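User: Please predict the structure of the protein below. I'd like the answer in structure-token form so I can feed it into my own downstream comparison script.

Assistant: Understood. Taking the following sequence of 274 residues as input:
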Amino acid sequence: MLVRFPQPYDFHLSTVRFRDFGSDGATVWHEGGLHRVVAGHEVRIEAVPGGVRVEPATPEAMEEISRLLGLPFDLDPFHDWTAREPVLGAIAETLRGFRPTLNPRPFEALVVAITTQQISLHAAAAIRGRFVQRFGPKHDLAWDFPARELVALADPRDFSALGFSRTKAEYVVGLARSDLDLDALALLPDDEVIATLTALPGLGRWTADWFLARHLARPHAWPAGDLGVRKAVSTFYADGRPLSIPEVRTMGDRFAPFQNLAAQHLLAGARMAG
């Protein structure tokens, strides 16, 4: 079934992170399309004129894939605004057709963030891939991301064989065992989401900011503590001068009310620039 996207939309450009940083097994790039398990069925997503084709097109798949591919973002107002912001405007024009992706499941989004803390995206994907294969059911090309309930039963000591540090293993299992209603976070304002998440062991401001940005698609999310964001802001707005987290957080105000989309485009622009 066709999922229509506002045009222009470049599926290949928008999904580059699923190729460049390695697969974790839960979202797999294969022969020009993405594979992901949704509600017990492996789904293939591939570009067609006007959007993407999703097969099999169950209601659950249509909802999850629409979020995965960033359909909640309204890009037209952002592009109208960047026309008055020369630096970001030039980046956005170069990336025309780019639509940031999202992680549609809250537990998965937080596990992704935990595994990515303080290591490269490639290393994190490899570690997460072993985790997914250990705890997630295998389908054809993809694994279903491990259920929170199953991870809650795991022994953190067993995670060392998967490449987890002791603390990260404890964070993931602790999150799974917590009584936090992750779905309910979508009903909270940004500051309460941050406060709720950072009250849990291993979930700091960096993790909370990316949860707001890449799961909830909150427009004002600005991951100032992210090294990639800091480098991109430094490259495009400070002539390469190293910037502190407080400096970058303050600079986020210039992109209001589009901080999230600005961060995603700056990161994509930095990758394209090499």
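That's the full token string. Residues 121-135 form the longest helix (15 residues).
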